[in-house]
Amino acid sequence: xxxxxxxxxxxxxxxxxxxxSCAASGSIFSINAMxxxxxxxxxxxxxxxxxxxxxxxxxxxxxxxxGRFTISRxxxxxxxxxxxxxxxxxxTAVYYCNxxxxxxxxxxxxxxxxxxxQVTVSS
Length: 123
Hints:
About 0% of the residues lie in helices and about 60% in strands. Strands 2, 4, 5, 6, 9, 10 and 11 form a seven-stranded mixed sheet that branches. The protein has strands spanning about 1-5, 10-15, 20-25, 30-40, 45-50, 60, 70-75, 80-85, 95-100, 110-115, 115-120. It is mainly beta. It is built from no helices and eleven strands.
């Protein structure tokens, strides 16, 4: 199976920074892209960032985090990161890692999800 494990969440003061990690393991043939989502209490899951996993790296951010968050990857570790700066109370949410890829040669691409890591920003 493909497993994604998020880490790095915690409690931080407004204006502070936090770095999330998402390590992928298991049967992974290829990774096309990795994304970060978040879900705040009582709200819909929100996509916040994507990074492609090919030799040419592209990143796209949601307006809500643009200029404050940075997504990056380490192909050797099958790990994606989310550097979060200038955190606001409204950033409080469970942050989820998403991987789009193939578990085996010839298989169709699909989404895989981590269990999430809690980020709490206090005012």
